[in-house]
Write a structure and sequence with these properties.
There is one protein chain. The chain is elongated and about 85 Å long. It is mainly β. The protein folds into two domains: 63 residues, no CATH class; 171 residues, no CATH class. Helices cover 0% and strands 49% of the residues. It contains no helices and 15 strands.
Length: 238
């Protein structure tokens, strides 16, 4: 469950009137949401009093219980860390406000994030940070990475192995993204080799593997590509 930092952060939480006190475990204040043309405002329906003691208080104006789909995402070419992502569909019905958010996961504070609601997509992704119990490793397979000459051309082959391990006590959904080189020149040809079931984006070269991973489970696979180009040219391949 994702929960915003809520309630009031003092034992004596202020009061709605002279006798009724508000605690962190209570519900949000009764409010009316007013949708204007360019913004959303919250009108507090019951007067609320804060002590004049110089302390800082935080009060919930509203609460939403929003279903989310959880998955881990990793781009091992850039960072082998796996990030837990909460994906929320049809999020625009909740009048979410853009700004800094405190994130809690399973009643544990995991950090701060910027809630960016300037989306045109119907799915809002919220990163809950790295999870050290989901391990991803990307290594070059030297035996399958080579260079050779064919006539006036040079041909280079690259192969990679990806290993994933779930050290958690529950199954997870994991999305791994890698990338094929993209050639914009006709004399440079990129040919994918074994892609191990990846979904390939022709436009940007992205390779995406979506896989369930059982508790304490592990998987590994290889993928690779071949590049042919004039032997008088120099290409720096990963």
């Amino acid at each position: 469950m994702i929960t915003a930092y809520g309630g009031v952060n003092k034992k004596m939480k202020g009061k709605r009137d002279q006798t009724e006190y508000y605690g962190a475990e209570d519900a949000a204040l009764p409010t009316t949401i007013i949708e204007n043309q360019t913004n959303v405002s919250f009108r507090v329906d019951i007067p609320y009093t804060l002590p004049s003691d110089g302390e800082t208080y935080t009060v919930d104006l509203t609460r939403y219980f929003i279903p989310a789909y959880y998955e881990y995402q990793c781009v091992p070419k850039l960072d082998e860390s796996a990030f837990l992502i909460a994906r929320i569909t049809q999020w625009d019905q909740y009048n979410l406000l853009e700004g800094e958010a405190n994130l809690f996961f399973e009643d544990t504070y995991v950090g701060k994030s910027i809630l960016d609601v300037r989306y045109v997509s119907d799915t809002l992704d919220i990163s809950l940070g790295r999870d050290r119990n989901v391990l991803v490793k990307r290594t070059k397979v030297v035996d399958y990475s080579k260079r050779r000459f064919i006539g006036a051309n040079k041909v280079e082959t690259r192969s990679w192995k990806i290993e994933v391990r779930n050290n958690k006590a529950q199954a997870i959904n994991l999305v791994i993204t890698d990338q094929l080189p993209i050639s914009r020149q006709s004399e440079i040809e990129v040919t994918p080799q074994e892609l191990s079931g990846a979904v390939r984006n022709i436009e940007n070269g992205d390779l995406i593997w979506s896989l369930p991973l059982e508790a304490k489970g592990r998987k590994e696979w290889q993928w690779g590509y071949e590049v042919k180009y004039p032997k008088d040219r120099y290409l720096q391949l990963e």
